[in-house]
Design brief:
The complex is a heterodimer.
Chain A lengths: L2 H16 L26 H13 L17 H14 L8 H13 L2 H12 L5 E4 L15 E4 L3 E12 L6 E7 L10 E7 L5 E6 L8 E12 L3 E2 L5 H17 L10 H9 L10 H29 L7 H24 L15 H9 L9 H12 L6
Chain B lengths: L6 H17 L2 H9 L8 H9 L18 H14 L5 H15 L2 H12 L5 E4 L14 E5 L2 E8 L10 E7 L10 E6 L6 E5 L9 E11 L3 E2 L6 H36 L1 E2 L2 E2 L4 H30 L5 H26 L10 H13 L4 H11 L3
Parallel strand pairs in B: 1-4
Antiparallel strand pairs in B: 2-3, 3-7, 4-5, 5-8, 6-7, 9-10
Helix pairs in contact in B: 1-4, 4-7, 5-6, 5-7, 7-8, 7-9, 7-10, 8-9, 9-10, 9-11
The chains are: A alpha+beta, B alpha+beta.
Chain lengths: 394, 379
């Protein structure tokens, strides 16, 4: 048996033994995701146990180095773990911006003290992070951000406002872009800092969205004192970190639809339009559209895998995350349009236990933001045109 | 297995690319077309292909082949797609070789495989009977007769049919059109009595033929594989065709795309390169994404054929559907972005559009494969 086969066998046995049965059922809605954090209330013992066991092995972040509590797995082994988890139907033990965004940035740009302080808490789901990037006047044009951090010799004094801060009202810490030099060209006066959301002077205000939910907040900073050791990387060089982190955020948003909860669209359609005598969906046009989106979904899974493999082989282009972000978010919107079409009037119920309080239409509306957040589809296409295709003047 | 080419596969790609760029660029196809070449490809070039080990790419080393797999076959097909080179590589080295290697008797292997690898024999795989690919509906009948069978019926869209030294014919030995049971493969010499081959000149200037079988008598040893149990190998060979034509389509689409990007950087209107216009940039970036996502699906399909040949149908359908759709978009955008010159015969880009239209139909278009995917998922 090769080493990889042995790993597969051991992993499967471990998962079968350690993943509680409740954590092997498909999620019914996004409410069942485990985000962790200081104030996290586990939905069940199974959710808690599953997180603890996976965190113990470092498998909430299979490829991070073991010295900080990660799984230390090679890409090949991490793929095997992922495959075994999906074939057993194991849920993700922990979803977090710390895992998807901050962690990779700290591993690349953080100092040793910062890595030792923050990475283990991300891995164990003890600290929930949010991202302070967009501002009321800095959306697609992110580099025009105005939140400032003044050097007060032993600390930075932060003043300003962020917007679209995902889960700011639930997060424990924030990674934040601030302007530290107002006289420099706009990309060169930005720094990347970390601070505790419990600091004096931080306040949040949820924004009610078209989905009737408030995953985003306005976040206000009034004379927030941030210790100097919380600067990541070099002063005024935060834009490099911001861009690096954005590549991770974009890949994450691109893959968001693949984590979608709920029943497959073909099953929903089977209930609403019925099957013909050959067992095919009785609405042939809907059937064709479902098949087309399924083809694109599966191809996109392979594209994500290939992008990771190319990066590992040193043949990747960082701007490729813009392709994944663009394609994945547009695909997710198509998927939800189809779910709504398949669901018919059942999918329009907004308030009923039967509809889980409108879980589907609320998710459908939420997906409209996928092609806006993390850089709009149009911004991604600009990036691809310029950095990959080398088109002039872009 | 990582979804990237390994070192050997990359070297193979480079050597195929270098050879084709030097010896078989689009002007080679143009010359064959304009001279109304009777063969439809260059025999000299095919001989060189054999010397490079490509004709025997799937043939085991014991029969003089290279003993490589479908990823390697796809790598070569993608390069043939970039140059639009007409070649018996698909018909002979991939389709017929797969059928013979996987189900041939020792005698059949001895008779054909070494000659395929040496570039000495051309084979054609005859499946389609209607103008839309639908192998379940094969009707050409093979009835027991004397020591063997009598074949009656028609085939169409047979790639390299008019130059083939042997045909592998999918026929119905029992059951009704629509049944997957009752199908059988036969190896038929096209020169025997009752076989009528008509070359059909197609839009892309690549080879195809209609073949009529009028009471064609073959011996029992002409059967390739099992009598009545041929569906599995027919479907397997078709999957090889689908996945490797997906590679070819990807190469053709990618090349058309690269030529278009160069044009956007050169061509000036309103005093600047037209590539500066966001209307074109966004379409170009979208197309790039479509092509790249397709590449991942195609490579996955080829790897699956190598690893789990009989379980590749779903991913092969995904790859062929995606390749047909994204290559079609690539050539349509190529002509549109080139403007008037893209409409001229003198300029090469039109050849790409023509070839993609044929590749889209070959072994099932995107609609056929969407239907396949839905069937495989029971809806």
């Amino acid at each position: 048996m090769t080493e990889l086969e042995a790993f597969r066998k051991d992993t499967r046995a471990w998962l079968e033994k350690n993943c509680p049965p409740e954590m092997r059922k498909p999620m019914q809605s996004e409410e069942e995701i485990c985000w962790g954090g200081r104030n996290w209330k586990f939905h069940s013992d199974a959710q808690r146990v599953w997180l603890e066991r996976m965190a113990e092995k470092g498998w909430t972040v299979p490829e991070w180095p073991q010295e900080y509590g990660g799984g230390g797995l090679s890409r090949e082994k991490a793929k095997i773990l992922q495959k075994e988890m999906s074939s057993l139907g194991c849920r993700s033990p922990l979803d977090s911006f710390g895992i998807w965004m901050l962690g990779p940035a700290l591993l690349k740009y953080g100092n040793e003290e910062q890595k030792r302080e923050h990475l283990p808490k991300i891995i164990r789901g003890e600290i929930r992070w949010c991202q302070g990037y967009s501002e009321p006047n800095a959306g697609s044009d992110l580099a025009s951000l105005q939140t400032k951090a003044e050097d007060k010799s032993d600390h930075y004094l932060v003043n300003g406002q962020k917007i679209w801060t995902s889960y700011a009202d639930k997060a424990d810490w924030i990674f934040c872009l601030v302007r530290t030099d107002f006289s420099a060209p706009r990309h060169e006066g930005i720094s990347f800092i970390l601070f505790d959301m419990a600091s004096k002077g931080v306040s949040t205000k949820p924004i009610l969205l078209i989905s009737g939910k408030s995953p985003f907040c306005e976040t206000f900073f009034t004379d927030v004192k941030v210790p100097k050791k919380n600067l990541v990387g070099t002063l005024n060089k935060g834009w490099d970190i911001a861009k690096y982190l954005l590549t991770h955020e974009r890949t994450m948003i691109g893959g968001m639809g693949l984590r979608a909860a709920g029943r497959p669209v073909s099953q929903i359609a089977a209930d609403t339009v019925g099957l013909d005598e050959k067992g095919m969906l009785a609405d042939p046009i809907l059937r064709g559209k479902i098949a087309e989106v399924s083809i694109d979904e599966m191809a996109f899974v392979f594209a994500l895998e290939r992008a990771g493999d190319l990066a590992k082989a040193g043949q990747g282009n960082p701007a490729f995350s813009s392709v994944l972000k663009y394609y994945g978010s547009e695909l997710n919107k198509r998927r939800y349009e189809l779910l709504m079409a398949a669901g018919g009037s059942d999918a329009l119920e907004w308030e009923s236990p039967r509809s889980k309080e409108g879980a589907l239409p609320r998710s459908w509306l939420r997906t409209k933001g996928n092609s806006i957040e993390g850089g709009t589809s149009e911004v991604q296409l600009n990036i691809v045109a310029k950095r990959i295709l080398g088109l002039p003047g872009a | 297995m990582p979804l990237v080419l390994n070192n050997e596969q990359s070297l193979l790609r480079d050597s195929a690319r270098g050879f084709l760029a030097k010896n078989a660029s689009v002007s080679h196809l143009r010359k064959l077309r304009d001279s109304r070449d009777q063969i439809g490809f260059s025999r000299a070039l095919w001989k060189q292909f054999a010397e490079m080990g490509f004709a025997g790419i799937l043939v085991p080393e014991s029969f003089g082949g290279s003993g490589l797999g479908y990823v390697e076959a796809g790598v070569v097909m993608e390069e043939l797609g970039r140059t639009l080179t007409p070649s018996p590589f698909l018909s002979t080295a991939l389709l017929c070789a797969t059928a013979l290697v996987r189900t041939g008797t020792d005698a059949q292997k001895v008779e054909y495989l070494a000659k395929i690898a040496a570039g000495e024999q051309i084979g054609a795989f005859a499946v389609d009977e209607q103008s839309k690919h639908n192998p379940r509906r094969i009707a050409l009948s093979a009835k027991r007769s004397g020591n063997g069978f009598a074949l009656n019926g028609n085939k169409s869209f047979v790639v390299d049919g008019h130059v083939a030294d042997f045909l592998i014919v999918a026929a119905r030995t029992s059951g009704e059109p629509g049944d997957t049971k009752g199908l059988t493969l036969f190896i038929v010499d096209p020169k025997i009595k009752g076989v009528e081959v008509e070359r059909t000149i197609m839009v892309d200037s690549h080879n195809a033929a209609r073949i009529e079988f009028d009471d064609v008598q073959v011996n029992a040893d002409a059967v390739l594989g099992e009598v009545d149990g041929g569906w599995r190998i027919i479907d397997g060979v078709l999957n090889v065709g689908r996945a490797t034509v997906a590679s070819e389509l990807t190469g053709t689409g990618d090349e058309a795309f690269h030529r278009t990007m160069e044009y956007l950087k050169e061509r000036k209107q309103f005093g600047k390169p037209i590539g500066e216009f966001q209307a074109l940039q966004h379409r170009a970036a979208h197309l790039y994404g479509e092509i790249e996502i397709t590449k991942a699906a195609v490579l996955k399909a080829l790897q699956t054929l190598d690893e789990r040949f009989d379980h590749a149908s779903m991913i092969v359908s995904i790859a062929k559907a995606r390749a047909g759709t994204s290559a079609t978009l690539a050539v349509q955008e190529a002509v549109q972005m080139h403007g008037g010159i893209g409409m001229t015969d003198e300029f090469d880009i039109g050849f790409f559009m023509k070839r993609v239209r044929v590749g889209q139909e070959l072994f099932g278009d995107a609609n056929f494969h969407a239907d396949q995917l839905a069937r495989l998922n029971h809806y």
